[in-house]
Every structure is written in structure tokens, then in C-alpha cells.
Design brief:
mainly alpha; two-stranded antiparallel ribbon; 65% helix; disordered N terminus
């Protein structure tokens, strides 16, 4: 998704719009000063005065939106890398574990809110205070590193999202342009299309950079809300059309392997955890709720819907296209104007979302850099850093042009750390001194080990595939429509 995401939303002046994952800095800007962390078991909860905030339904919508991005389009290929049986089962398990880790983060944040009498606790704050509560003197002395680690992975994750977006934009626009002369109004006659060769995909990436620079120069999050609303509408319409198409004419699934090769499973892990990356959104959402006691129920409901949607799209997409499935399922759509419009709508949606994802690393890096210079140079330095970061994402996208491997690499490196590795360890450091059952410690250790193994194996496999394809630079995701 994605993507993950916060700002004021279109559903009301008090609504929280989550179009960027909260950074340690930006999360504070979104903080409602009248809100407070609410523990469902607290005796003080019933007497709390109700403040303006988002409703349970709005919370659910924002949580769903926080997961909708390019990741869901890569899940059919991810299922191919795991097998038609192993893939959906693994998505269900991963959805359950990711949801559990989000609950852990919320519970730890609530714990420190009450202990320290603070109204809000972001991801970095929670990890820092968790290390301060650790029985280890070394961890207590280096608690600030917890915040730095979270900030680092947030930057890597969000800039990785931006790289994925550039590759996605280039691949889909290239295919639309190459097939425009053969595009028809008949969506049922799906013959092999001979594409008209155009320029290299990397030139399409370069062509998008000026537009991206103009978007990231918008520093007001309220103005970006307009682009976010446009992105929401575009992605929703295109996803409905896409789902309607892949649910039709499912061929015989017996030809598909139940379990794929173990060598490709790490690529599945990276893409899947990339799709589930919305853990950074949960604390700002809880903080903005009218009654935060309802948040755990909304989180469980939202993640159940997301997991079911991911499993359905991933399995149906692979069943529909089999071994011909591309890195983004939009690249498998028939060559008619209805389904070409799906690509164009997603291009618009991702183009608008780029600036919102970019907001998180900008809010972490730029304030620190600007604080080192005088006010006279603050604005030039701000704009220069934004320009440099856009070109950095563009260069990385050009160097790694395979969308499937970019998804897997970003998911394995940073998403696994934020979503699977850190939360269980945080629970141990937070509650160990207060007494934890051995089963809880073993459970947390197993989840962290699972995340670490996925981190190492997924990163290795993605890098190995990238090196193997580096000489030819064949764009397997920019393929012919069948």
C-alpha cells in the first residue's frame, strides 16, 4: 500500500486521512491534543470526556485504505511463487500474524501512555520506552537507538514504495502506449497483440520525474488531501473492474502446482509482507478515534477483510492467468479500452500517492537538516533535499527495473522488520520485568525468528535474481499481452 498513511481526510474536518505512514515527526503533527490513550480495562475509561474524532466506521475505512496500493496487484505472482495451495494458506497465516503484531504495538503504546501520562505514543516513542523498560542495562543505555532504527526502516520502506511506484508507472504506461494501435472496444476477443515498440522503460521513468518533483514540492499536507482523494477514487474504480474480470472464466486449476519450489518461496514472503505493511498507521488511527476502546475490534475486523481480499485476489489472479501472470496483474488485462482504462486509472492513483508516501521520509530528514542552517537557507535547503530524494528514487528504480523483485526486496528488507521482527521483541522488553509467561516469550521469539528468516532469505533471493538479470536487463514485467 501500502501503503501506509495519515493526514486529514475527505470525510470531515476531524477525520484522519491515512495516506502516508506516520513518522516520528509527522505523527506528532497529526496528534489530537485532546485525545488520550485508552486502555479498555482502565477504571478511568468510563469517565473520559468524549472529544471530536473519527468514528469506528471511519477508522475501518482508513485501515482498509492504508493497505490498498500496488502490493495487492503483485499478489497473484506471489501466489505463483508459493503454489496454489501454499500461497493462499500462507497469506492467511501472514495476515493473522501481522494483525497480532499490530495488537502488540497498540497494547505496548497504551501501556506507556498510562505509565508516563502521555496523550500520544508513536512507533518510535514506543520502541524507545520499551528499551528503557528492558531488564538489560545495555538496552536501557541505548534506548534512543530504538527510535533511530524505526526511523531508518520507515525511510527505507517509504522510499522503497516510491521506487516501486516509478517502476509501476513506467511499465503500465509503456504497455498502454505500445498497444494503443491495437486496442479495441471488444473485451471478449482476446487475441495475441503485437505491440508497437517504443522507447525503453527507463526513459518512461525519467519522463515521470518532473511531475513527481512538482508534486513533492507541495509541502502542505492539507493540499495533498485533494490528490489523495483522487488516488482513492481511481484505485477503487480500477480494483472493482479488475476483480470483476479475474473472477470470470477460471480455467482448470489442476495444472497448477499445489506447492512451488522452495527457492521461490522467499520472493512470495517479500511481496506478501510488503502488501501487509500498514503497521505504522495503527497508532495515529487509535489516537484519532472518538472511543479508542473500540480500536482493537476495528483492527481485527479490518485486517480480516484485508486478508480475505488479498487471499482472494492472489488466488483468483493466479488461477486466471497461471504461469503467464505478470509482476502486476494489470499487465495481464485484455487489450480493450475498458481494461486499458484500469491501467490509466491506477497510473493516476499511484502518481498522486507518490507525494503522500514521500511525505514520511521528508518529515524525518528535512526538519533535522533545516535545523542546522539559518532561516535564510531553510526553504532552499528544503526544496533541494526534496529534489535530491526524488532523483534518488528515480535512479534506484532505473537500476532495479523489475517490479516483482523491487516489491520483494522492499518487503523483505524493511517491511519484515517493522511488521514482524520489532513488535514481538518490543512486547518482551516491555513486559518481561513485570512477568511474562514462558509461552508468551516463546511465541514472540518464534514470530521474530520467522520475520528474521524471511528478511534474510527474501533479501538474498531478490538480490540473487537481480544480479542474475542485471546483465540483460530484461523487463519481465513489461511483457506482451496474451
Amino acid at each position: 500500500m501500502p501503503v501506509t498513511k495519515s493526514a486529514e481526510g475527505p470525510q470531515g474536518a476531524d477525520a484522519l486521512k491515512l495516506d502516508v505512514m506516520p513518522s516520528p515527526t509527522s505523527a506528532k503533527h497529526l496528534q489530537n491534543k485532546d485525545s488520550s490513550c485508552v486502555d479498555g480495562n482502565s477504571s478511568e475509561s468510563p469517565g473520559l470526556e468524549k472529544t471530536k474524532g473519527i468514528t469506528d466506521f471511519q477508522t475501518l475505512i482508513h485501515l482498509l485504505k492504508g493497505n490498498m496500493g500496488t502490493g495487492i496487484l503483485g499478489l497473484p505472482l506471489a501466489v505463483k511463487n508459493a503454489g496454489i495451495l501454499m500461497g493462499p494458506l500462507s497469506l492467511l497465516v501472514m495476515g493473522f500474524v501481522a494483525c497480532h503484531c499490530m495488537h502488540i504495538l497498540v497494547r505496548c503504546a497504551q501501556h506507556f501512555c498510562h505509565r508516563l501520562n502521555k496523550p500520544f505514543m508513536d512507533y518510535g516513542d514506543t520502541v524507545m520506552h520499551g528499551l528503557e523498560a528492558s531488564p538489560s542495562a545495555w538496552l536501557r543505555d541505548h534506548a534512543q537507538w530504538g527510535r533511530h532504527i524505526v526511523s531508518f526502516f520507515l525511510i527505507v520502506t517509504q522510499l522503497g514504495f516510491c521506487c516501486v511506484y516509478i517502476v509501476f508507472l513506467a511499465d503500465n504506461l509503456k504497455q498502454v502506449v505500445e498497444a494503443v494501435n491495437s486496442t479495441t472496444n471488444n473485451c471478449h476477443y482476446n487475441e495475441t497483440v503485437v505491440l508497437t515498440p517504443t522507447v525503453d522503460s527507463r526513459l518512461y521513468m525519467l519522463a515521470f520525474l518532473p511531475f513527481l518533483v512538482l508534486l513533492v514540492f507541495i509541502r502542505n499536507l492539507r493540499i495533498l488531501t485533494i490528490f489523495s482523494l483522487l488516488a482513492n477514487i481511481s484505485m477503487l474504480v480500477s480494483l472493482v473492474i479488475l476483480t470483476q474480470f479475474i473472477a470470470q472464466e477460471i480455467p482448470d486449476p489442476s495444472r497448477l502446482p499445489l506447492v512451488a519450489s522452495w527457492k521461490t518461496y522467499p520472493l512470495f514472503f517479500g511481496t506478501a509482507i510488503f502488501s501487509f505493511e500498514s503497521i505504522g498507521v495503527v497508532l495515529p488511527l487509535e489516537n484519532k478515534m472518538k472511543d479508542a476502546r473500540h480500536f482493537p475490534a476495528m483492527l481485527s475486523l479490518g485486517m480480516s477483510i484485508i486478508t480475505a481480499m488479498y487471499t482472494g485476489v492472489g488466488a483468483l489472479g493466479y488461477l486466471r492467468f497461471g504461469d503467464d501472470i505478470k509482476a502486476s496483474i494489470t499487465l495481464n488485462l485484455p487489450n480493450c479500452w475498458l481494461y486499458q482504462s484500469v491501467k490509466l486509472l491506477y497510473i493516476v492513483g499511484i502518481l498522486c500517492t507518490y507525494a503522500l508516501q514521500f511525505f514520511v521520509p521528508a518529515e524525518i530528514i528535512i526538519p533535522f537538516a533545516v535545523s542546522q542552517v539559518s532561516k535564510r537557507w531553510a526553504l532552499p535547503l528544503d526544496l533541494s533535499i526534496r529534489l535530491a530524494m526524488v532523483f534518488l528514487t528515480g535512479i534506484l528504480a532505473i537500476l532495479v527495473p523489475r517490479l516483482d523483485l523491487v516489491l520483494s526486496l522492499v518487503g523483505s528488507v524493511s517491511s519484515s522488520a517493522l511488521a514482524l521482527i520489532i513488535p514481538p521483541l518490543l512486547e518482551i522488553t516491555t513486559y518481561y520485568s513485570e512477568g511474562m509467561s514462558p509461552l508468551a516469550i516463546i511465541k514472540d521469539a518464534l514470530i521474530s525468528i520467522l520475520g528474521f528468516v524471511g528478511f534474510v532469505a527474501g533479501t538474498y533471493q531478490a538480490l540473487d535474481e537481480l544480479l542474475a538479470s542485471g546483465e540483460s536487463l530484461t523487463f519481465s514485467n513489461s511483457t506482451f499481452i496474451q
